[in-house]
Predict the 3D structure of the following.
Amino acid sequence: MSFGDFLRKCAGAGAAGGISAAALARAIGVSPTRMSRALRGQVRGFKAETVLRLAAHCNLDPLETLREAGHAELAALLAAAFVVPHIPAGRARETVRQYLELDAERRRTVERLVADLARFDAELDDAEHAPAVPAETTTGAERASRRTRRPRAPRR
């Protein structure tokens, strides 16, 4: 994918919410003319700082955005130096942010809850894939023969 294609994806109905190229340009600190040239493929790319602003504005993974924008070596160095975990986009990113703001005790509670849900989910999966237990197919006479009867009292 070219850098222009990548920018069109960001400016389109995807991550940036369908804003115009000019509005996206202003949001990340470049001129609309430069953005227009980049979209047409007349500009090789943006500086790393601008690309990181683009990632933040479009709610994209910063390292992936750096790679797509031609800064693969910088992305690799950052990933190696900071062991950056993948931070998901959108709602998942907000959930991660909220979790990181919790105190240690509440984090442990959330972790226990997630572990319990995972165990419960695994049990449900096991139950769905377990062989069906056949229903008992004995007749009434067979059941009656299994019963133990008390001996009758002698008749007088």
User: Anything to note?
Assistant: The mean pLDDT is 78. The chain has two domains: 3-82, 91-128. The two ends are 104 Å apart (CA to CA).
